[in-house]
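We read letters as residues; the fold follows as tokens. Both lines appear below.
***
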Amino acid sequence: MQLKVTYYLDVISSWCYWAEPAWAELKRRYAGVALFDWQIALLDAGGLPGSSSQEEWFYRRSGTVVRSPFMLDAGWLEPGRTEYFAVNAVTEAGRDFGFADDRLRIALAEAAVRQGRKVGLWEVCAEVAEEATGISASTLVDAARTPAIEQRIRASTAEFHALKVTQRPTFVIDDAIGDRVVFSGLVQVEPMVAAMEAMLRDCTAYASWKAHFGDPPRE
């Protein structure tokens, strides 16, 4: 593969929800050319709304920015909660049951921001996950509550912060010749397509050069 695209997200982030069409289009357009992976980047208390009315204000803003025909549902919010670990942990645990794709992740996001379900609660997340995957709720929750899953989530969140960005979604595009492009907070597909096309052209050029001249001199 010439490219790798890593998508940093929190499942309850509305902007991540709005970015899903762009993510799906990139995966469709560059299937067989790029590797795609998502990683959890937990929102902390500073990135969470303080009340349902505040979140609804943000939803009106983001919904009109993306020209959505519907408004998101803030019913999932529990004021005072400093992070939404359960929903992200169940999402991450799904990888170990063959759900490293987007199905479980999107089902949980839909339950939160479209249906307003209380995904801060383990039992709600387990119910949604069982509906989406057919795996028993207790099996998923038991896996999600292990130290190994928390370690993975904390590590990927630390990787996100090491990028020195603040917005979810963040998309990191790496190519085979060592170039990197970071898009933080954008939800439109066009700038990412432009970057990926430029990177692919450079990869092709490097391959052509190597075919004609071989590896560089050692000295």
Remarks:
- The CA atoms of residues 25 and 132 lie 22 Å apart.
- The mean pLDDT is 95.
- The chain has one domain: 3-213.
